[in-house]
Amino acid sequence: MSAEVSLKAFLEQFTAKVARKEKQLQKAHWLLQTTGSQDAADLKADLETECKLLFSDKGTYEQLLAWDGDKSLTDPVLQRQLNVLIRAFKQNMLPEELLQQIADKEARLNQIYGNFRAKLDGKLLSENEILKLLKEEKDPKKRKQVWEASKEIGKQMAPEILSLVALRNRAAIELGYSDYFSMMLQLQEVDEKWLFETLEELVKQSDGAYNKMLEGLQKKQSEKFQVSVEDLGPWAWCDPFCQGDPLDVRELDTLVDKLDFLKVASDFYKSMGIDVQGIVGRSDNFEREGKNQHAFCQNIDRGEDVRMLNNIKPTIRWLETVLHELGHAVYELGFDPKLPWLLREPPHMITTEAMALLAGRQVYRDSFLKRVVESSDHKKGLIAKGEQSLTRRQLIFSRFVMVMTTVERELYRNPKQDMNKVWWDAVKKYQKVSPPGKREGGTDWAAKVHMGLAPVYYFSYLLGELFASSIEEKLGELAKVEAGQFLREKLFFPGNSLSWNKLIEHVTGSALSSSDWLKQFA
After folding, report:
1. Taking the domain 192-521, which CATH number applies?
2. For residue 96, how many other CB atoms are within 10 A of its CB?
3. Predicted confidence (pLDDT) per residue in 117-173, tens digit
4. Contact assessment for residue 324 and residue 356, using Cβ atoms and an 8 Å cutoff
5. What is the 3-state composition of the chain as percent helix, strand, coil, each rounded to the nearest 5?
6. In the chain, what are the domain boundaries?
7. SS3 for 374?
8. DSSP string covering 426-442, please?
């Protein structure tokens, strides 16, 4: 039997088994995120282990390597499936006990995060309520209390994350890597040296624009809160991590707070020739107790069942989020249906984040706001502020990505060091925000959900922004059928048949570059 015939037979049998188990896992994950129940956490952990065990048979892995080395195998679709499988098997060639421990710990972290509510003056506050207070409260003393309350989750998450980091590093070392961070980059087809050189160069090229923006921002914060610039801290921003634009937030909310966000988002995608009604109907869009307070898109079956989880409130941030998550969803539903199951996914989060970020940033664009907001002289002035806010948001967020990425690398390199010192050193270096008092030995670093539950991921947002800018420069106005058709054919349709860097070249005609982003925002 030829290598091609034997590989095809294996893939047909193996992927049918994996697809069934993966669908069960995705449904358990959805149940956990929407309820926060212990039963869902246990079920998700067990199914995750079962899924990983499908990719942990040594004999199968050796056979995959043999097929990979067979020169007679020239079909690019088969070769790509082999590439995907080898990387999936490589990270799971571990004892069943270790795989189960990792799955249990991840499920536990999901449960802690989903059920946590900050406590302030005896009252439990959701994440939305924390953000609302940081947006509206004018008293610095009260704001500091709110900010401190938002960090309390770190005390619960930190020991669990450190325990999970030890397990992940143990797995990586057993597989021949220096640590989990480096392993995951390699398995994602991302060169670590290239990644940090690219990010640091972007910071260098945009530092003048960031410093100028920050100087103006701090001046306004100082005037607003009646404190000196030197006395400003993270409490003066509109979110606990200083990752969003703190200026004009309430004013921009008034532009959209009477809109039906799901309808506005559906109409936007309809203008691109894309129907999202099915996605909206399957989604869980409003907050309640026990539910994950974040937002995400989930593909249940690599088929038609794609859903969003949101916690919508009448703010421009949430309108942005709805468009963002629908961006992921339309990407997931846009793969060539003839692709084999293994290739019906993005090649990397960079490419799906690009679509989501491209869609989300539209809510600050002049052209978008003029379509959805009733015209008046007052609102015309606010609409102009949207574009200004978008530029600030891009510069601010680029620095937060640097914080997350550098801190996470340090976390896996040496989890025994004072991670809060590492965190605040990075915040001061990149965001140029000073901590409120001494924070050494604390757990602020663990308050960000991605630190434990979305490992080696955050850099994808910034690389996705670079890719999004290149797409935007190529397409111009997004709300048109031609743009939707281009994205479906060039970005969505190939799925994982191409590596992420080849897909970017396929879409834009050139390798990933920061030049378009710098031109737009710096």
Report:
1. 1.10.1370.30
2. 12
3. 999 999 999 999 999 999 999 999 999 999 999 999 999 999 999 999 999 999 999
4. yes
5. 70, 5, 30
6. 1-115, 192-521
7. coil
8. HIIIII----SS--TT-
